[in-house]
Amino acid sequence: xxxxxxxxxxxxxxxxxxxxxxxxxxxxxxxxxxxxxxxxxxxxxxxxxxxxxxxxxxxxxxxxxxxxxxxxxxxxxxxxxxxxxxxxxxxxxxxxxxxxxxxxxxxxxxxxxxxxxxxxxxxxxxxxxxxxxxxxxxxxxxxxxxxxxxxxxxxxxxxxxxxxxxxxxxxxxxxxxxxxxxxxxxxxxxxxxxxxxxxxxxxxxxxxxxxxxxxxxxxxxxxxxxxxxxxxxxxxxxxxxxxxxxxxxxxxxxxxxxxxxxxxxxxxxxxxxxxxxxxxxxxxxxxxxxxxxxxxxxxxxxxxxxxxxxxxxxxxxxxxxxxxxxxxxxxxxxxxxxxxxxxxxxxxxxxxxxxxxxxxxxxxxxxxxxxxxxxxxxxxxxxxxxxxxxxxxxxxxxxxxxxxxxxxxxxxxxxxxxxxxxxxxxxxxxxxxxxxxxxxxxxxxxxxxxxxxxxx
Length: 456
Description:
16 strands, Aspartate Aminotransferase, domain 1, transferase, 4-stranded antiparallel beta sheet, 15 helices, Aminotransferase_I/II_large, Arc Repressor Mutant, subunit A, alpha/beta, cell cycle, Tscrpt_reg_HTH_GntR, EC 2.6.1.39, 43% helix, 456 residues
């Protein structure tokens, strides 16, 4: 064992034994190096590794202190055997905790005066400048004056649903299935929504055109890349066609591109790139690619909606927290975001390939599945007469966690045989075994259902 690992083991042992408790200061680097007969660099390396594991934290010019080690070290019984296809947050092992901590510390210094006053409703102008620069990388060309910083992209969606639009229309069109939180906002605000089918080949364009023509559609909500829950991404040709239909029938589009940063194909454009008129409202979030608790997003709002959106934002929360905005600004301007994105794209692309290969290898006939490219989402449509609830309960006892997609449908589109797979938090080495267990579970339930039919 390397010497610095012995130092780590010693500190962890003291934590577990109660010698070091929450908030206690660790021995000084010099004193521990003398006690353990090792170099100063060895102790420094050990303490830095403990900090990366979030077991200790450093206070400049004071030393290292213990975090809540009971929470940090606790492992639930059987946790190591769980295969999590249910959680949809970003991979916790790839989160930029340390870099963002530095950004937070700098933001406190840079914006210390602003923390005691109300800020700009639209968001810090300096952050919007950085966001406009970053958006160019995903082919969204706009100016800071059109960017609104929001408390997660969901806030922008929730506000836009209820706003009056220049076209004077009142109904909403959404893909089916679609994000459950979008449907929750629609229900909560009592807005009438029409659904349009999205299949493994994309949205039904004929159905969409009929809705635009006859449904009094104010806006169409779409996730154009790495759709939730199907994992589908529109082609550039499909995006152009949808924008043309929106222009023809005077419909606005909300393009939710919250996973667009994960797209490794730089030839794929957002719908926003095909609409110079401002008919496409572009939204994105930093929750799925960075830290879910950050709750920061943006919306590119056309000038004719600026005033009404600003009033709605003010009524919702006055302004998005300044400290979070400042930290994101520093994170972007120092190039940390681009470095992090490269890492995330690599991780999720690898996971997506693992999932695709495992589905082809194991899933039985009659099971329909999508092929994701982001590493986040895919769907399974189970063969009749199985339901998602049956499979979820059946495999939950084996440590395979699944999510039904039934809450992602409008009532008239309801399906109970669809499972959403998310591999964002599933360990890559467990994906193959997880799909194999799902395939076995499907076969077992089919056999059981046939026996019941024969018995009847």
